[in-house]
Structure formats: C-alpha cells, structure tokens
C-alpha cells in the first residue's frame, strides 16, 4: 500500500501524526515531511526518512490539509510520552561511562570457592528491568478498580521503600533523572 493515498491519480499526502506499519522499520508515526520524504519515528528503529511513495500499510491516515503545523520536537516529545504510557517499551537508560565494559566480581569469603564475574552491562540491564517492572506494577496499582484508596496508598509506600532499597545502584546510571528515589529523597 502506498504511503501517500492516491485518489483519481492525484497523490494525497498523509498528515503529521498518521500511523503506519513499514515492512522493514515496523510501526511508526509521521512526524514531519518534505517535498520528497516523510520523517517517521518508529517504535523500534527511531527516526527514519522514507520516500513519499514508499510501500507499507497505513494504520491511521490523518489529512495533511487539516493538521496544524507543529514542531518536530513537540511531536517527538508527545510520541515518546504516549509510547511510554501505553506500551512496555521503556526509555533507554544509559550506563555511566566509567562502568561501560566493566565487570562485577562476586568473591566468596571462603577462598576455596570460585569467584563469579558478571559483565556490568548485563547486571545494569537487569537492574533497569527491575526498575521498569516496578514502575509497571505501580501503574497497575494506581489504575486498579479492585483496590480502595487506602490499599493503594499502602502499596505505594512499599514501592517507595523498594526504590529506596535500590538507590545503591544509582551510581551505575549516567543520568540522574534515571535514579531510584526513595522516601527521604522525595521529601
């Protein structure tokens, strides 16, 4: 299916915000266009430019003429927020430069036992997965229709304590906004 819709042999452009499924790049949203290309932000591949007449499926077409112009930055920001809210895709949390390629060594007290080495990138990835799963659990608790408000507050306090227990691992994160935040830091 052609990205630009053809009616009576006249090519009609898709508007910013149209959703598509590209055979190579997957699902994405048109975030800008030029006279030759669409700029599409794909869930898996990020920002790519594709020809106006490229072939792929149109999931939702928005009319080019009916859309107010917005900046690419505004569209990308909105798209990221939507994807983070409604999918299991998490923003990338980079590891601190000083730990890239490093290793974590677990050494038992008993010298007769062998130590264990783990690539720190692997360990960091697992910490990020734990954080992301706690966030999902937090969202499910807040959205639950089966819990009353007091039960939600009680569970939120447990989650806050879990975050507090994980603050030791903040040293691994490159960006402070990715840090675990416990009770004391929020106050």
Percentage of residues in helical conformation: 25-40%
Compute the separation of the termini in Å: 54 Å
Helix-strand topology string: EEEEEEEHEEHHH
* Order of strands across the main sheet: 6-5-4-3-7
Kindly give the count of domains.
2
Structural class, by secondary structure, is: alpha+beta
Shape estimate: extended
Radius of gyration: 23 Å
Total number of helices = 4
Q: How would you state the average pLDDT, rounded?
A: 82
Count of β-strands = 9
Approximate strand percentage: 15-25%
Largest sheet: 5 strands, antiparallel
**Which stretches are low in confidence, meaning pLDDT under 50 for 5 or more residues running?**
1-10
Q: Secondary structure elements and their pairing?
A:
Layout: E1 5-7, E2 10-12, E3 19-22, E4 26-33, E5 37-42, E6 46-51, E7 57-60, H1 72-86, E8 103-106, E9 116-119, H2 120-143, H3 149-165, H4 183-186
Antiparallel strand pairs: 1-2, 3-4, 3-7, 4-5, 5-6, 8-9
Helix pairs in contact: 2-3
How would you characterize the overall build of this protein?
The protein is 32% helix and 22% strand. It contains 4 helices and 9 strands. With 187 residues, it is of the alpha+beta class. The strands form 3 sheets. Strands 6-5-4-3-7 form a 5-stranded antiparallel sheet, with helices on one face. A two-stranded antiparallel sheet has the order 1-2. It is extended and about 70 Å long. α2 runs antiparallel to α3 (149-165). It folds into 2 domains: 5-86, no CATH class; 97-186, no CATH class. The termini are far apart. Mean pLDDT is 82; it is low at 1-10.
């Amino acid at each position: 299916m052609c990205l630009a819709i053809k009616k009576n042999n006249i090519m009609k452009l898709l508007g910013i915000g149209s959703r598509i499924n590209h055979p190579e790049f997957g699902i994405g949203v048109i975030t800008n266009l030029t006279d030759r290309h669409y700029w599409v932000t794909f869930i898996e591949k990020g920002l790519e430019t594709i020809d106006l007449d490229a072939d792929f499926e149109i999931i939702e077409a928005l009319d080019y003429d009916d859309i107010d112009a917005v900046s690419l930055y505004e569209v990308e920001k909105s798209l990221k927020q939507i994807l983070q809210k409604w999918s299991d895709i998490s923003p990338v949390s980079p590891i601190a430069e000083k730990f890239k390629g490093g290793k974590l060594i677990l050494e038992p007290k008993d010298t007769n036992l062998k130590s264990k080495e783990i690539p720190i990138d692997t360990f960091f990835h697992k910490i990020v997965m734990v954080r992301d799963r706690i966030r999902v659990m937090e969202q499910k608790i807040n959205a639950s229709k089966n819990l009353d408000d007091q039960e939600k507050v009680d569970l939120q306090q447990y989650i806050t304590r879990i975050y507090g227990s994980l603050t030791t691992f903040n040293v691994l994160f490159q960006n402070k906004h990715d840090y675990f935040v416990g009770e004391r830091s929020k106050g």
